[in-house]
Amino acid sequence: MRLATAEIDINALRHNLAIVKEMAPSAKVMAVLKANAYGHGLVKIAQCLEGADAFAVARIDEALALRAGGLTKPIILLEGFFAPSDLPILLANNFETVVHDENQLAAIEACQLDAPISVWLKIDTGMHRLGIEPHQFEQFYARLKQSPNVKADTKLMTHFPCADDLNNDFTTQQIAAFTALVKERDEALCLANSAGIIGWPDAHFDWVRSGLMLYGVSPMLNCTGVDHALKPVMRLKTRVIAIKHVVCGDRIGYGGRWTCEKDTTLAVVAMGYGDGYPRHAKEGTPVVIKGQRYGIVGSISMDMISVDIGCDSDQIRVGDEVEMWGPNLPVEEIADCADTIPYELLCNITPRVSYDYLSD
Ligand SMILES: *Cc1c(COP(=O)(O)O)cnc(C)c1O
Questions:
Q1: Closest residue to atom 6 of ligand 1, CA basis
Q2: Helix 102-110 with 137-146: angle, nearest 10 deg
Q3: How far apart are CA 326 and CA 46, in angstroms?
Q4: Pairing state between β 54-57 and 234-246
Q5: pLDDT band for position 307 (50/70/90)?
Q6: Which secondary-structure segment (H or E) carries 308?
Q7: Does position 80 have pLDDT exceeding 80, yes or no?
Q8: Measured in angstroms, how far is the CA atom of residue 344 from the centroid of ligand 1?
Q9: In angstroms, what is the span from residue 202 Cα to ligand 1's centroid?
Q10: Does the pLDDT of residue 311 top 80, yes or no?
Q11: Where is the Alanine racemase C-terminal domain (predicted)?
């Protein structure tokens, strides 16, 4: 009997890519696949995104895994490279690099390469994480143009910290500052992450970087994917492994954290933080069994969770399937219950969970 399983709906994935293209029709799409494609399986997801124009990852190892998996599309390293010795690897594998600081630029200028590489110059317009300062732009741009190690097709990018909030005009300010800075240069521009794609059409330009929304999940505040016509790709499911009758006053689970206020029935479900389910999910966080929602009680253990199935106890049996999140239970909602964001829940799926890829 399969227990913790992430069912991955490839049709939904392709549908979501089509939505990205519908929302940003004039832009090319960089599919963001870092962190094991947000927990969905790096190579498998890449193989199913025939329609993407490029892939993006955070680390060279992720990019190498894509090449080892036979993927041939351009791959962009979102944080660039970390040592000069990485540069021959970039060239040999046709990886494109972000340049966000002086060390990277100097390394590119100093190296001996048989052919030039493609560069995405990252400018910090207010996130204050990676990126050169706006006043450094002219100098960096000129040096990139002069270096024989850099291809002529330099792209210009920036990143949004607040695009999930439509009431925050910081994104508008960033778009204005960025376009004012680079307007003399006839280069491809890349600004929008998923929140930029969904919420800020003025940010679309030539390339969009689509991560979370590809997986059918909303980055916007107080929304779920269906609000943007997206379909959840992952269904995290498991099974009931025991049914337990308890009486008023019984205390459930580690620490006896939850006390029954009346006689009830619990379903013990084979899922825990050892599978990546958030241990901090609060009392009452829903799961779905046979189309009905039931709340979690007691503390979440490594391998098991107890669910109060109360008066429906006669309809639920050992072996019944339990959805922890997915099409019937938005991961955005579970993230709220665990005081985190859906990104973290998806990335945290552990190797113990098996994967089923479904498509027609
Ligand atoms: C992860 C990442 C993205 C994708 O963000 P989503 O919100 O998942 O769409 C885009 N750009 C950069 C620089 C990133 O690091």
A1: 211
A2: 20
A3: 21
A4: unpaired
A5: very high
A6: strand 305-308
A7: yes
A8: 13
A9: 17
A10: no
A11: 233-358
104 lines ligand 1 (CB under 6 A): no
- Ligand 1 atom nearest the C-alpha of 130 is 13
| Residue 360 pLDDT | 83
32 lines ligand 1 (CB under 6 A): yes
C-alpha–C-alpha distance, residues 319 and 240, integer Å: 5
Q: pLDDT tens, 138-184?
A: 999 999 999 999 999 999 999 999 999 999 999 999 999 999 999 99
- Please indicate if the annotation marks 304 as binding a ligand: no
Per residue in 84-104, is it b (16+ CB within 10 Å) or e — as a string?
Answer: eebbeebbeeebbbbbbeeeb
Residue nearest to atom 10 of ligand 1 (CA): 193
The tokens describing 274, both together, are 């050892």
Would 10-219 and 234-358 be classified into the same CATH topology? no
Evaluate: CB of 219 within 6 angstroms of ligand 1: yes
Query: According to CATH, what is the number of the domain 10-219?
Result: 3.20.20.10
Superfamily of domain 234-358: Lyase, Ornithine Decarboxylase; Chain A, domain 1 (2.40.37.10)
pTM, full prediction: 0.96
342 CB within 6 A, ligand 1: no
pLDDT tens-digit profile of 315-334?
999 999 999 999 999 999 99
Per-residue pLDDT band for 83 (boundaries 50, 70, 90) equals very high
Using CB atoms within 10 Å of the CB of residue 133, give its burial: 0 to 12 exposed, 13 to 18 middle, 19+ buried. Answer: exposed
Where do the structural domains in the chain lie, given as residue ranges? Answer: 10-219, 234-358
Q: What is the model's pLDDT at position 1?
A: 80
Length of the chain: 360
pLDDT in tens, 218-266: 999 999 999 999 999 999 999 999 999 999 999 999 999 899 999 999 9
For the four alpha carbons of 288, 292, 295 and 301, in that order, the dihedral sign comes to negative
User: Which residue in 249, 355, 258 sits closest to 297, CA to CA?
Assistant: 258
pLDDT tens readout for residues 266-295: 999 999 999 999 999 999 999 999 999 999
Residues annotated as catalytic (active site), given as ranges: 34, 254
